[in-house]
Hints:
The protein is α+β, with helices and mostly antiparallel strands. It folds into four domains: 1-73 and 277-414, no CATH class; 86-256, no CATH class; 419-482 and 681-824, no CATH class; 487-675, Barwin-like endoglucanases. It contains 26 helices and 21 strands. The strands form two sheets. Strands 11, 12, 13, 14, 15, 16, 17, 18, 19, 20 and 21 form an eleven-stranded mixed sheet that branches. Strands 1, 2, 3, 4, 5, 6, 7, 8, 9 and 10 form a ten-stranded mixed sheet that branches. Strand 6 (181-183) and strand 7 form a beta hairpin. The chain is elongated and about 100 Å long.
Amino acid sequence: MPRRLFEVGVHAVARLLPAASPSALGKVVRSGVGRRRLQSLVMALTTFATVTTAMLSLGLLTAVQAPFEHAFGARNGAHLAIQFSSSKVTAAQAAATAHAAGVTEAAGPYPIAAALDTTIGTDCAERAGSDNGPITVSTRPDLGSTSGMDQLALTRGHWPTGPGEIALPSQDFAADCFGDSVVFSSLPGKPSFKVVGFADSVTNSATGFLTADGFARLTAAGAKSDEQMLYRFAKAGTNADIATDKQAVAAAVPAGAVESGQSYLIAEQQATGNAKAYVPFLIGFGILGLFMSVLIISIVVSGAVASGIRRIGILKSLGFTPAQVARAYTAQAMIPATLGLVLGTVFGNLLAVPILGGATQQLGAAGAASATIPLWVSAVVPLGTLLIVGVTALIPALRAGRMPTVRALVVGRAPKAGGGQRAQRLASRLPLPRAMSLGLAQPFARPARTVLVGAAVLFGVVSVTFAVGLETGFNRYLDASTSGFNVASEFVEPTADVGVPWGRYGPNDPRDPHLDADKVAAALAEIEGTKAAFGWGDSGATMVGAPPGGETPEVFTTTGDFSWTGMELLSGRWYSAPGEAVVGDKLASAVGIHVGDDLTVVQQNKQLPLKVVGINFDTNVGDYTVMTDAATFTAAGLTPHIDQFNVELASNVNGAEWSTSAAAALTPLNASVQPNSDGGKNIVVLTMGALVATLTLMMMAVAALGVLSTVVQDTRERAHDLGIFKALGMTPKQTIAMVLTSVSLTGLVAGLIGVPLGVAVEKATLTPMGNAIGRHLPPSVTHTYTAGLLIPLLAGGIVIALLGALLPAGWAARTRTATALRTE
C-alpha cells in the first residue's frame, strides 16, 4: 500500500511540473559528459580512428584516381596503343584495323621508332654525354591539336616547328638542360635535336615528338619506322578486356604484325600505384574501426542508461520529457564523438599529403592541381560517421526516454537477481580458488553485456592479427627488395666507374667500362675468404614488343651462381642454357608474357630470340627486366656487358682485410672493390608499416578501453556484493583475481574466433595491394603466419581483456568494505 501511494504521488508531481528548459537540458548533458570522462575518451578515440582510416582510404582512392581520370577524359586518351611492324603491314592495313571488333574510335597510323638510345648533348656542360635512356619517338600531323584522340599536353616551351627540334616528357630529360640537345647515340651519325618543349601523352603512347621532317631525319639515319594505331573500345575496364581487344586487332592483320601494345591501365597503375597500395589495408582498418565505433558507443550509452536508471527517473519527475531524456543521452555520446571526428578529419588530411605528393607528381600537369584529399571527402566521411554514431546512440537513448518514471525511481540501478546462479554452482565445483571461480561465473550473470565485451575484444584481436600479418609481409617485402643484385658483402666494379655517378653512360656507350668477366671470376675464386660470387650487367639490349611508352625494359646478363642472393621465382624455373630467359613479374603482367613464350631482344641492331622459362619476383634495377645467361649473348656473337660482381664473404672474414688482399689481384684487371652500403629502404613500405602500427595501437587501445568501460560499470553495480565478499574475508589480491578472471574466458573465446578472422582479412588485403603496384607477391610475402606467430596471437584476446580490466580490478581492491556495503 505505501508503494502504491508513492507511485500515485510521483505521477501527480510529474504532471504538475513543466517541461525542462533547454538550459537545464544542456546542464544535464554537460554533467553527464563530465562524469563519464573515461567513456567520453573511449568514444572520441574510436571515432578518431574510424574517421582517420576512412578519410585516408576514400580520400587516397579519389584523389589519386581523379587526376588521371580527368586527364584521360579531357585528353580523350587511348585505351590501347599498338605498334605494327612496317615489314609486315602497310599503313593502309594498319588503318583498316579501326574496324576491328569492339573498336569505337581509332586514330593513326602514326610513324613510330621505338627504344632509341639517347645521350645529353655537349651543349649542356654539366651533363654532356650522360646517358638519357631509350626514347620512343613519333610524329603526328598536328602535335598541339586539342581535338581527336590522345591529345598531347605541353607543359613547358613550345612544340617542334622544324626538323631539328623535339619535345620530350619532363621526366625523360634533365630540366637544367632544357633548350639544349638530345643525341640519338645508337644511330649512325648520331643525329641531335634541340629540346624545345616538355610534353607528354596521358597514356605514354610515345616519349618523344618530332615534326614529319624531323622524323625523316631519324629514319634517314637508320631508325626503323613502324606504324602506331590508337584505339578506344566499347569494353576496356579490365586487363582481360584489353587483352581481348588486342586479340581482335591482331586478328585483322597478318600474323606477327603486332609488335607491342600499351594499355592505359598500365599507365594508370604507374601513375597511381604507390598511393593506391595504401587503400586496401586502410579500408580493412576503416571497416574494423566503424564496427568498433558502433559497438563501443552502444556499450557506453547502454551502460550509461543501465547505471543511471534512478537518475532518469529523477529527470522525468523534474519535468524532462521522454524526447529530452533521449536527446540528453544521445548528446552525451555525440559531443566526444564530434571531437574525434574533427581530429580524425584533420589527421587524415595531414597524413594524406606526403602519400599523395609522390603519386600526383607522376601525373605531371594532370596531377599538379591537387595533392590533398578532395573537400567533398572531408565533408562526407565525418558527416556519414556522425550519422552512424547518432543512430547508434539514439537506440539505447530512446529506451531511456520511454522508461516509466515510477519504474525508474523504484528500480533504481539495482541489478536483476538470480542471474548466473547455475554457472556459479558449476564454477564452485572446479579445483580453483573461490575468487577465481566467482570470476569465471560472472559473465553468465549478464550474457548480453558479456557478448558486447567479447565483441570489443574480438575486433581488437582481428585488428592485431591483421596488423601482425601485414607488418610481417611488409618486412619480408623489404627483405625481398634487397635480394638479387642488391645482395653482396662487397662489390667489384670497373676502376673507371669508381666515383662516376651511376648511369652516367649508357650500356652501349663506348665510354661505359666493363669487366673481363672470366678473368675477374677466376681471380675472385683464388682470393682467400671468397665464399661465392656472380657477375651481372645491363646488356644494352632492348626488347621487341615492349610497351612503346613509359619505362623501357632492361635486359640483364649474368655469369656464375646467384642462388645465394635470395631471388624468388613465381613460376617456371631459372635459365640453365643459352637462349633461355627469366622475365620480371611487372614486365610479364604489363606485356602479357607467360612461361613458354618466345621474346626477342635487340642489341646493336641484331635480333636475339629468347625462350621464357620463368617469371621471377623482380627486385633488380628497374621495374621491367629480362635476365639471361651471358653465354646467350656470346653464343650469338654479341657482348654481354658484365659491369659488376657481387661477392659473398665467408662468415669469419673481415671485409676490409679481404678488400686489401683482393686489390692486388683485381687492380691489373682494371677492377676495384667497393663496400656494400646496403642502399636505401623503400619509403612507401616503411610508411605503410608505421601507419599500420599506429592504427593497430589505436584499435587495441579502443578495444581495451571498451572492456575497461564495461568492467567499471559492472564493478560499480556490484559494489555491494564486493563489500559482502570483503566482509567475509576476501583480500585485495583475491578481489583483483576475481575481476580479472571475469573477463579471461571472454577474452579467450574472442581470441580463438578473432585470429582466423584476422588471417582472412590479411589474405584478402595483400593481393589487392600487390595488384595496385603491378606486382604478383611471392609466397614469402603472402604466407606470413607461422605457428610462432599464431600461438601468441591466440592469447591476444586474453591480453586485451586483462589490460582493460586491470584498472577497475585495482579500484575494486582498494574500495573500503564499509563504503562498498553502504552502496545500493
